[in-house]
Write a structure and sequence with these properties.
Length: 95
Amino acid sequence: MPAYLVVEHLITDPDRFEQYRNKVVPMIEGFGGRYLTRSGSHQILEGAWKPTRVAIIEFPDMAALKAFYDAPEYRPLFELRRGTGTDVVIAIEGA
């Protein structure tokens, strides 16, 4: 059953975020993940949530998602991302 990583980014350092993005995409793909959305493609239809950048990434299952997120090789990228702004990161299991 697929699992989804939903990430809201509020980027304060675009140059460093671009470094993160260039390195993390191949790593996500290596764990079977793929981006389902493009940055800036969201529209708020109801409610007060006002995200600036949202990404949805599909993984084959929750085990693959967690393997990516907990991977030792992701730790340096995790720290790089944290230095580029603030994030909300949610893992959701598909139906």
